[in-house]
Design brief:
The protein is α+β, with helices and mostly antiparallel strands. Helix content is 33%, strand content 30%. Helix 1 runs parallel beside helix 4, helix 1 packs parallel to helix 7 and helix 7 runs antiparallel to helix 8. The longest helix has 28 residues.
Length: 393
């Protein structure tokens, strides 16, 4: 279907609209987009189905490129002040280092991975949104969405209606916006489930390094967070709803360090989830656009999900500003730029996940191949550029 353009600069075009951009979803992607638009002088409204912001989170990594693009919003230093700088990402088979990836030599002001919980990231972004004059309407659920040549009308769960020139779905994997637009979400799901826990650990656990452990039993990620907490993420056949200390200890004993055990002292928070690898067939359907998890989801290996969503938001903010000035081709350019990036990220996360869960009989061959490749500086350098997001500059 083709949607004709209109002159959004004409006086008549400003009539009958409650806002220029309606954003559905107040996660990191939606908050970043809203703040970026408000900073550009674009009228923006954000709705979210939750009564309050999430108190727990899955994402815990903010990469260098993400910190770079957030600089103009004035939030980067606030995040850095509240996070831990991890300058190394290591892939190991128990105690054996297979691939050491360092970030110190990257050409950026942020040569590290910033470890900070998504809850903190969201609170910093929300604070900036409020400073710019914005707010999040909660709890508000999208009940229906209809678009025409000049805009879109959203009906909310309380019966109210909102007219916007553009609507952005930043409402996660089960996006109501994407479903309303009839955009396919192609891909599949991993057979395993994932367990996630924030724990306090004893033993010889690095406090400035993210480690991806491979083992016959599956993978486990061990990552430092502020306040003496470590994030544990692992693939399991059937994760418990709320993993306790004994369960997490069993995972680390079977998959983590052997010479000096990581000892679980307390589980601060835990959860389980299943992981899909999907990319939306299109990022745009007329006046409706997608960003973040509404557009792409994948394995947590490599910590790319939230970062990709924030980069979507920054790119989309510029595209929407141009569209509102009369150049709607910018919206197609946004989709053409960001969708291939999502496919690359999904492919990288999928490779890491499948390498981590290779059959026991292929473990020795995998380790040998990875050790040989890691001896090549260009391989380690490319992985550092990919993981940091600098490759997408």
């Amino acid at each position: 279907m083709t949607f004709p353009s209109i002159n959004l600069n004409s006086p008549a075009s400003s009539k009958g609209f409650d806002t220029d951009v309606l954003i559905v979803g107040a996660g990191p992607t939606g908050l970043t987009l809203a703040a970026s638009l408000l900073a550009r002088g674009v009228r923006t409204c954000v709705i979210d189905r939750q009564a309050e912001g999430a108190n727990t989170s899955r994402a815990a990594v903010v990469h260098a490129r993400t910190l770079e693009v957030l600089e103009p919003l004035g939030v980067t230093q606030r995040l850095v002040a509240r996070g831990i700088q991890a300058r190394q990402f290591t892939i190991r088979d128990r105690d054996r280092v297979l691939v050491p990836i360092g970030f110190s030599q990257l050409p950026t002001q942020y040569p590290y991975t910033l470890m900070v919980s998504q809850a903190v990231t969201e609170s910093v972004l929300l604070q900036r949104l409020v400073e710019l004059g914005g707010r999040v309407l909660r709890p508000r659920t999208l009940a229906a969405l209809v678009q025409d040549a000049s805009g879109a009308t959203a009906t909310l769960d309380d019966g109210s209606r909102m007219r916007a020139r553009f609507v952005v779905g930043a409402d996660g994997m089960h996006s109501a916006v994407r479903e309303s637009a009839g955009i396919a979400f192609n891909g599949g799901s991993y057979g395993e489930s994932f367990v996630l826990a924030d724990v306090r650990l004893g033993g010889g656990v690095p406090i400035d390094e993210v480690i991806l452990y491979f083992s016959p039993a599956g993978m486990v990620v061990l990552a430092p967070l502020p306040d003496g907490v470590h994030r544990v993420v692992a693939t399991v056949s059937d994760a418990p709803e709320q993993p306790d200390a004994a369960y997490v200890q069993g995972l680390l004993d079977a998959r983590g360090p052997q010479r000096e055990r990581a000892l679980v002292q307390e589980v601060v928070w835990g959860s389980r989830f299943r992981v899909h690898h999907r990319v939306a067939e299109s990022y745009r359907a007329g006046r409706i656009l997608l960003a973040g998890d509404a557009a792409h989801v994948h394995s947590p290996a490599g910590g790319q999900g939230m970062n990709a969503g924030i980069l979507d938001a920054i790119s989309l903010a510029g595209a929407l500003e141009q569209a509102l000035a009369g150049s709607e081709t910018s919206l197609d350019a946004y989709a053409a730029e960001r969708r291939p990036v999502a496919r690359q990220i999904v492919a990288l996360a999928d490779r890491l996940t499948r390498l981590a869960t290779v059959r026991p009989g292929l473990r020795a061959l995998r380790n040998l191949a990875m050790s040989v490749l890691s001896c090549l500086p260009q391989v380690r350098r490319r992985l550092a550029w990919q993981l940091s997001g600098l490759i997408y500059r």
